[in-house]
Amino acid sequence: MAGANRASVSIASPTDARIPVADLFASYGMPRFFCEIMNTLGPLDPTVQMIHDRLQSFDVDELRRRATSAEAELYNLGITFTVYSDRDAIDRILPFDLIPRILTAGEWELVERGVVQRVTAINKFLWDIYHDQKILRDGIIPRDLVLGNVNFRPEMMGLDVPLGVYVHVNGTDIVRDEAGRFLVLEDNARTPSGVSYVIENRHMMLRVLPDLLSGIGIRPVEEYGLRLKQAMIEIAPAGVSDPQVVLLSPGIYNSAYFEHVFLAREMGVPLVEGRDLVVENARVFMRTIAGLRPVHSIYRRLNDDFLDPDVFRPESQLGVRGLVDAWRRGNVAIANAVGTGVADDKAIYAYMPRIIRYYLDEEPILNNVDTRICREPDGLKYTLDNLEKLVVKPVGESGGYGLIIGPHATRAELDEFRIKLKADPANYISQPVINLSTAPTLCEGGVEARHVDLRPFAVTGASTWVLPGGLSRVALKKGSLVVNSSQGGGSKDTWVLS
Q1: What span, in angstroms and rounded, lies between the C-alpha atoms of 265 and 260?
Q2: Can you give the pTM of this predicted structure?
Q3: What pairs with residue 218 in β-bridges?
Q4: Is the dihedral of CA 97, 102, 107, 113 positive or negative?
Q5: Are residues 306 and 396 part of one domain?
Q6: Mean per-residue pLDDT over the chain, rounded
Q7: How crowded is residue 85: how many other Cβ atoms within 10 Å of its Cβ?
Q8: CB atoms within 10 A of CB 286
Q9: Statement to judge: residues 13 and 126 lie in one domain
Q10: Which tops the pLDDT comparison, 52 or 76?
Q11: pLDDT confidence of 86, banded at 50, 70, 90?
């Protein structure tokens, strides 16, 4: 790999003073925000207290020594992601913090139910907009917001996907506010990434901090690959006794290529690129040294635009010519389905509570963050009047790009962004700044509070299963609310207590 981020905060400086055992949390204090391990809203769970006490048995030098060992192992294993700049593509290690993020069984039960409810509603919404469009006729969502969405695919109209499932893998980004309430920040219904870090983080903790985990009941994460493969088998064409599943990757230059390799191994399926597949007589085959071999289910990590040059971008060299026709004829299954990007659009996100009520006749288990849609006159006026207090995001961007955090912006930055907002209001939504919860994190000065979020991964075939815990991302820069890896964030192992 092109190299690790050797400046990770988890490496001790030679000048660091040794912090006595009893003072491991001396620099932590009582956080101003809800703390995942030291909250004061009620008595601590006994197991959480036990983990806190065990952490106190380490001094900061010992933790840093183990963190350095973990980082070296990540480097040797090639567990990286790619950051693209104007001139370069740089492979980096995702900084890994040794202090786990902890969720009690009760907390997880709420998150799990909320994620299942949300995924169920998203799949019903996608089925409807690509069939009867009742939700549009009933005026629950503006028609042009869906039909004019860049991710709406007319080619999907009338296609009956297996089991009615469009989103087989979903990543729901969740935050906690100052009261400890779980709120959904956004949905990722296309090709959500990051699950490989969930599993590798657990492996790393078992290797470098086994004494912290010993005797503590923690829900396992290792079955994700098998669950995903089972879902792919469940959506395979009928009558196939032993479906061939493959993972379709854009190739080695993709930012998440490590994850593609990792998941193919975890699922026990071939990792293929578009050039490895061919369509003959509306059936998909994989090229092997023994000849063509039928393929029945494809877990694709390739964007819609590049999937089939006969249907989308004619110049695409990454996809498979004729693939969509084979899919429409029922000869192959594709996950996630084409056109799911409508459901994770940030403008559609604002309507998710209404979508849940419309299709499920239920109140949302997990609420949205209060969201204003700038394409609507009232939403635009409110956003412009309160820009210095809000987070404003472009609806088509991800990874923390293109947004502005009003309280952290300069007057010049606010004035510049105001011009962009007025020029293209339909491209933006705004939300209040949420005081994200914090978790103890190993930093240069000892253990300090850093903001975190959570991305649980749901796998849907005949039913929906949620990976216990998910990816906890941490904003390593003091005071920062941006947890994205591409913006300098790191990750933690997420422990769901059993």
Answers
A1: 9
A2: 0.89
A3: 497
A4: positive
A5: no
A6: 88
A7: 7
A8: 17
A9: yes
A10: 52
A11: very low
